[in-house]
Each structure stands twice: as structure tokens, then as C-alpha cells.
Amino acid sequence: MHHLTVADVVREHRRSRPHVTALVDGDRRLTYADLDARTSRLANALIRAGVEPGDRLLWLGVNSFRVIELLIASAKVGSILCIANWRQSSGELKFIL
Question: Do residues 59 and 70 lie in contact, with contact meaning Cβ atoms separated by under 8 Å?
């Protein structure tokens, strides 16, 4: 079994097809080169903020390409991204947390 993360896949796509579109969100388009660069910067920002491998991060927001960026950046750091539905009731969110 291979031990690849989504970050490894993005890195490989950056190497083999850097100019191919990786993400589309409305008018926003990111190539694999853009996506890898952006997620590396985000991973470094997470590390500077004290995020370590094994830490859990919570996304509580609307659907956006930024969720995918955070997922990939989390994989680069070794942290775990948990995505919560921003429309949940406070009781439901409290249960999840």
C-alpha cells in the first residue's frame, strides 16, 4: 500500500502538468502550479501559527476553493482538517466539537 497524501498528488501534478487547471470556483481558476504554491504558503503560515502534525483544524464556513486549499495545506503539515456545516445548530456543533 502506498502512503500518499493529497499533498503528494498535488505536488506530482505540479511536476507533470503545472499549467493544467486544478480548481475552479466561479471565475477563479487555479493551475496545479498555483495550487501547490498557495498551499505551501498556507502550510507555512499554519506552522508559524503553531499547528503541528496530528493537530486538528476546524473549517466552519461556506463552500469555497479555500476549503480544498486548507485540506492540502493540512496534509503538508500533517494535521487533520475537520469540516463542519456552518448551518448546523449550536447544539449540533457542540456535539461535533
Answer: yes
